[in-house]
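To fix ideas at the outset, we first show an illustrative case, written as a sequence plus integers encoding its fold:
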Amino acid sequence: MAAAQTQRTRTAAANTATWRDVTPAPVVLVGGPEDYLGSRAMDRIRSQVRAAAPDVEVTRLNAGSYEPGTLAMNVSPSLFGEQKLIEVEGLEAMNDAFLADALKYLAQPEPDAVLVLRHGGGVRGKKLLDAIKAGGWPVVDCQPLKKDVDKASFVTSEFKAAARRIEPDAVHALVNAVGAQLAELAAACSQLIADATTAVDTDMVDRYYGGRVEASAFKVADAAMAGNAPLALSTLRHALDTGADPVPIVAALASKLRSLAKVAGASGSSAQIAKQLGMQPWLVEQAQREVRRWTPEGLVRSIQVTAEADAQVKGLSRDPVYAVEHAVTVIAGSVRR
């Protein structure tokens, strides 16, 4: 039994692909709830198939409204011998007819067809998903990028793939500005890659995206963490006057302080700490420089006042603006001169 489990583990590892490097195969599973990455994976497969066979016949099906026999009809060889690409969406809502036909097809896939299956997550169709994995077919797992470190890696990879440069601080600034939705972050990368004639720096990111609410929040946090209370307060008031919500501003303060607290209690090289904490090495180095200006008491006081402000802006206070101003003032005043 242990040997069988080891073999299953090796099979799963062998057929795992990323959305950036997946290649066509008779059967490819693109799973996970992140639609943007799923679309990129399917686009990549489609473009590679078309590059190899410009006259490819593309068919799109929906597993939820599937009619029995449709899959077999579409993968059957044609009189003219064109390559066939069948893209099936909505496997998370597949009906019984599709499940039965897909399981039957897996036993003997057509060699001149590429079947790409998109499953958005959930337990529906688990028998089919397990059969695909056991068969050793490529599986792409498209999970949301929730951590800033993962979004930063995404940005870096986008620029690397385009053979363009972006400075580490600019990566951080871009994630802060447009990192709420992955599709928007990707679009921002594409725009900067297309427009920049040299390495992208923070000034260029600020020119393009500095007016975003997320960017304004981190501008407030950066000024407060630098001990510049007048700049932090004036930036805060401008952000609020132009429609920013207090909640993301407090979240930005909390994010900065958490990074400092994590690094303050860690030991080792920046690379070791980064691996241990799941942070980018350059963010660790930045936090190490900043934490030298803080006493343990000042850091604790700032974390406490930010936690209080977080509760107040989420409904415990009738004056959330004052709560944020108070937190900004205390944080800026806690930085050693």
